[in-house]
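INTERNAL AUDIT FORM
Audit reference: QA-55
Scope: verify that the stored structure record matches its stored sequence.
Auditor: D.O.
Record contents follow.
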Amino acid sequence: MPTRKQIRSAISTAIAPVFERTFDYRPADLDPDDLPCAAVYFQAGDTEKDFDEEYRADSQLVIEIWAASMRDIDGALDEKEEAMKPLIAADTTFGDLIAGITRNGFSYDRDPETSSGSLAITYTVYYDEE
């Protein structure tokens, strides 16, 4: 059975070619030299026990992208998400760690005092839990 750490690590590794740095957790502080970067972390989840005594989890996973741009921060963030999409679609089970992944939504967070911002993309991840 996969752990949440294994799932975060596999997704972080899969999207790494798009970014300067990826994290399999949400960092407390970012170094500007790390931009553009992404963090993969779980926000919440539900677990149900099925008839076979297995635990099935439906969890909310977030991939948060940080970037900087002097002109168009939304465009810079969107560009990184578009580059990341095919890497996620290439193996939606991430080596059989999960049963599937579905994109649910997104939200932007822009810092008006700097040229940086973030885009948090939420997914539902389905997997058997220990």
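Auditor finding: record pair retrieved intact. Helices lie at 4-15, 73-89.
Action required: none
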